[in-house]
Design a protein that fits this description.
Order of helices and strands: HEEHEEEHHHH
Number of helices: 6
Radius of gyration: 17 Å
Shape: flat
Strand order of the largest sheet: 3-4-5
């Protein structure tokens, strides 16, 4: 189930964590708090939920580490890993465009957004709850914003209410 020399204690923690995550998906009160539902009806965990469960069940026995952060000018690429000591258990990557126009939160905070998505993919792959890989649809709705709008559409809608800098 887990690679490397992870046995016994960590495997028990892993199973408890997966059970709790599955229970969260069944709890309607957790919708738009711990998970969101995409247009396709599939439920997606928010990144803070995955990190919270990681810390709750594993403390700091498992660590998230940035493996590589590349700022390529027009976009940033981030690669994260989840480790038990020196053993890499899971990894995830994300690439976000950089758009420095005023009011574009994703563009001005491209590294932060890419890190969040990479961490989410790393943990999603590790926990394997609801599906093994965080796909584009999941990343699109994992921000816990509005199920009917993509992250970009939501930011565009918010931009109308933000005063511009003259």
């Amino acid at each position: 189930m887990l690679k490397g020399d992870v046995t016994g204690k960590l495997e028990c923690m892993y199973n408890c964590c997966r059970d709790e995550l599955n229970e969260l998906l069944e709890n309607k009160k957790e919708q738009n708090v711990s998970w969101v539902q995409g247009d396709n009806g599939k439920k997606y965990f928010t990144v803070p939920t995955l990190v919270k469960q990681l810390r709750k069940h594993f403390g700091f026995e498992l660590t998230l580490r940035a493996k590589k952060i590349d700022d390529m000018g027009d976009y940033v690429h981030v690669h994260y890993g989840l480790y038990y000591g020196d053993v890499e258990l899971s990894c995830g990557t994300s690439q976000k465009p950089r758009n420095l126009t005023a009011g574009d939160l994703v563009g001005t905070n491209a590294i932060e957004c890419a890190e969040t998505a990479a961490i989410g993919r790393t943990l999603k792959f590790f926990f394997g709850v609801n599906s093994d890989v965080a796909n584009d649809e999941e990343i699109k709705y994992s921000k816990g914003i509005n199920n009917k709008l993509t992250v970009i559409e939501t930011l565009e809608k918010r931009r109308e209410n933000v005063p511009s800098k003259n």
